[in-house]
Amino acid sequence: MNHSLIKKALDMRKQAHAPYSKYYVGAAVETDSGHIIGGCNIESSSYSLTCCAERVALFSSLAQDYFPIKALAVSTENGGSPCGACRQVIWDLCGDIPVYICDDSGLVDTTTSKELLPKAFDQKFLK
Ligand code: THU
After folding, report:
1. Beta strands in 13-95 (DSSP E)
2. Which of 5, 7, 48, 96 would you label with 40, given CA atoms 20 to 30 Å apart?
Protein backbone atom coordinates (compact mmCIF):
# COMPACT_ATOMS: atom_id res chain seq x y z
CA MET A 1 0.00 0.00 0.00
CA ASN A 2 1.36 3.37 -1.11
CA HIS A 3 0.90 6.18 1.44
CA SER A 4 1.17 8.83 -1.30
CA LEU A 5 -1.80 7.27 -3.06
CA ILE A 6 -3.92 7.42 0.10
CA LYS A 7 -2.83 10.97 0.83
CA LYS A 8 -3.71 12.09 -2.69
CA ALA A 9 -7.20 10.56 -2.41
CA LEU A 10 -7.71 12.37 0.91
CA ASP A 11 -6.41 15.67 -0.47
CA MET A 12 -8.60 15.45 -3.57
CA ARG A 13 -11.76 15.76 -1.46
CA LYS A 14 -10.92 19.46 -1.22
CA GLN A 15 -11.34 19.77 -5.00
CA ALA A 16 -14.77 18.13 -5.06
CA HIS A 17 -17.52 20.15 -6.73
CA ALA A 18 -20.56 18.85 -4.90
CA PRO A 19 -22.95 21.77 -4.24
CA TYR A 20 -26.06 19.53 -4.43
CA SER A 21 -25.22 16.46 -2.35
CA LYS A 22 -22.43 18.06 -0.32
CA TYR A 23 -20.87 14.58 -0.30
CA TYR A 24 -17.25 15.30 -1.13
CA VAL A 25 -15.31 12.45 -2.71
CA GLY A 26 -11.64 12.21 -3.58
CA ALA A 27 -9.91 9.49 -5.56
CA ALA A 28 -6.45 8.70 -6.82
CA VAL A 29 -4.92 6.10 -9.10
CA GLU A 30 -1.37 4.81 -9.16
CA THR A 31 0.18 3.72 -12.44
CA ASP A 32 2.75 0.99 -13.07
CA SER A 33 5.22 3.81 -13.72
CA GLY A 34 4.59 5.22 -10.23
CA HIS A 35 2.58 8.28 -11.20
CA ILE A 36 -0.32 9.27 -8.97
CA ILE A 37 -3.29 11.01 -10.57
CA GLY A 38 -6.18 12.48 -8.60
CA GLY A 39 -9.88 12.95 -9.21
CA CYS A 40 -12.90 14.33 -7.37
CA ASN A 41 -16.65 14.18 -7.89
CA ILE A 42 -18.03 16.90 -10.13
CA GLU A 43 -21.78 17.42 -9.89
CA SER A 44 -24.24 18.89 -12.37
CA SER A 45 -27.55 20.64 -11.71
CA SER A 46 -28.89 17.92 -14.01
CA TYR A 47 -27.97 15.37 -11.40
CA SER A 48 -27.42 12.34 -13.60
CA LEU A 49 -24.62 14.15 -15.45
CA THR A 50 -22.51 14.08 -12.31
CA CYS A 51 -19.21 12.24 -12.60
CA CYS A 52 -17.84 10.30 -9.64
CA ALA A 53 -14.36 10.91 -8.29
CA GLU A 54 -13.16 7.45 -9.30
CA ARG A 55 -14.06 7.92 -12.95
CA VAL A 56 -12.59 11.42 -13.03
CA ALA A 57 -9.30 9.98 -11.73
CA LEU A 58 -9.34 7.03 -14.14
CA PHE A 59 -10.24 9.10 -17.21
CA SER A 60 -7.76 11.81 -16.32
CA SER A 61 -5.01 9.24 -15.99
CA LEU A 62 -5.73 7.68 -19.37
CA ALA A 63 -6.15 11.08 -21.02
CA GLN A 64 -2.64 12.00 -19.93
CA ASP A 65 -1.30 8.63 -21.10
CA TYR A 66 -0.65 7.41 -17.54
CA PHE A 67 -1.54 3.76 -17.97
CA PRO A 68 -1.65 0.89 -16.90
CA ILE A 69 -3.18 1.57 -13.49
CA LYS A 70 -2.20 -0.73 -10.63
CA ALA A 71 -4.17 0.62 -7.65
CA LEU A 72 -6.98 2.99 -6.74
CA ALA A 73 -7.89 4.80 -3.53
CA VAL A 74 -11.17 6.54 -2.74
CA SER A 75 -11.91 8.89 0.14
CA THR A 76 -15.24 10.04 1.58
CA GLU A 77 -16.35 11.42 4.94
CA ASN A 78 -17.60 8.02 6.07
CA GLY A 79 -15.74 5.29 4.19
CA GLY A 80 -18.17 4.92 1.29
CA SER A 81 -17.18 2.47 -1.42
CA PRO A 82 -17.33 2.91 -5.21
CA CYS A 83 -20.76 2.94 -6.87
CA GLY A 84 -21.81 0.24 -9.31
CA ALA A 85 -21.03 2.29 -12.41
CA CYS A 86 -17.51 3.00 -11.19
CA ARG A 87 -16.98 -0.66 -10.31
CA GLN A 88 -17.66 -1.54 -13.95
CA VAL A 89 -15.28 1.12 -15.26
CA ILE A 90 -12.55 0.15 -12.78
CA TRP A 91 -12.85 -3.46 -13.93
CA ASP A 92 -12.84 -2.54 -17.63
CA LEU A 93 -9.82 -0.24 -17.40
CA CYS A 94 -7.77 -1.89 -14.67
CA GLY A 95 -8.81 -5.52 -14.26
CA ASP A 96 -8.24 -6.92 -10.79
CA ILE A 97 -6.44 -4.27 -8.73
CA PRO A 98 -6.36 -3.33 -5.04
CA VAL A 99 -8.91 -0.69 -4.02
CA TYR A 100 -8.25 1.28 -0.84
CA ILE A 101 -11.31 2.70 0.91
CA CYS A 102 -10.69 5.72 3.14
CA ASP A 103 -12.69 7.97 5.39
CA ASP A 104 -11.65 11.51 6.16
CA SER A 105 -8.88 10.37 8.48
CA GLY A 106 -7.35 7.54 6.43
CA LEU A 107 -7.54 3.95 5.26
CA VAL A 108 -10.49 1.94 6.62
CA ASP A 109 -10.70 -1.04 4.24
CA THR A 110 -8.66 -2.76 1.55
CA THR A 111 -10.51 -4.65 -1.13
CA THR A 112 -10.11 -5.49 -4.82
CA SER A 113 -11.98 -4.59 -7.98
CA LYS A 114 -12.91 -8.26 -8.40
CA GLU A 115 -14.36 -8.44 -4.92
CA LEU A 116 -16.36 -5.27 -5.64
CA LEU A 117 -17.69 -6.63 -8.95
CA PRO A 118 -17.81 -10.44 -8.97
CA LYS A 119 -18.86 -12.20 -12.19
CA ALA A 120 -18.32 -8.99 -14.14
CA PHE A 121 -19.49 -8.36 -17.66
CA ASP A 122 -16.50 -7.37 -19.77
CA GLN A 123 -14.86 -7.51 -23.18
CA LYS A 124 -14.66 -11.30 -23.17
CA PHE A 125 -18.39 -11.37 -23.94
CA LEU A 126 -17.98 -9.08 -26.93
CA LYS A 127 -16.90 -10.10 -30.42
N1 THU B 1 -19.87 9.63 -5.66
C2 THU B 1 -18.58 9.44 -6.04
O3 THU B 1 -17.86 10.37 -6.40
N4 THU B 1 -18.10 8.16 -6.02
C5 THU B 1 -18.84 7.08 -5.65
O6 THU B 1 -18.40 5.95 -5.82
C7 THU B 1 -20.14 7.27 -5.01
C8 THU B 1 -20.77 8.59 -5.25
C9 THU B 1 -20.39 11.00 -5.68
C10 THU B 1 -21.43 11.26 -6.73
C11 THU B 1 -22.19 12.41 -6.15
O12 THU B 1 -21.49 13.61 -6.48
C13 THU B 1 -22.08 12.21 -4.65
O14 THU B 1 -21.01 11.30 -4.45
C15 THU B 1 -23.34 11.66 -3.99
O16 THU B 1 -23.78 10.53 -4.65
Report:
1. 26-31, 36-40, 69-75
2. 96
* d(CA 57, ligand 1 centre) in Å: 13
pTM of the model: 0.97
Domains of the chain: 3-114 (3.40.140.10)
What is d(CA 51, CA 48) in angstroms, rounded to the nearest whole number?
Answer: 8
Per-residue pLDDT of the chain (127 residues; tens, 9 = 90+): 799 999 999 999 999 999 999 999 999 999 999 999 999 999 999 999 999 999 999 999 999 999 999 999 999 999 999 999 999 999 999 999 999 999 999 999 999 999 999 999 999 999 8
* Single-letter amino acid code for the residue at 69: I
Task: State the closest ligand 1 atom to the C-alpha of 43, by its place in the atom list counted from 1.
Answer: 12
Is 21's C-beta closer than 6 angstroms to any atom of ligand 1? yes
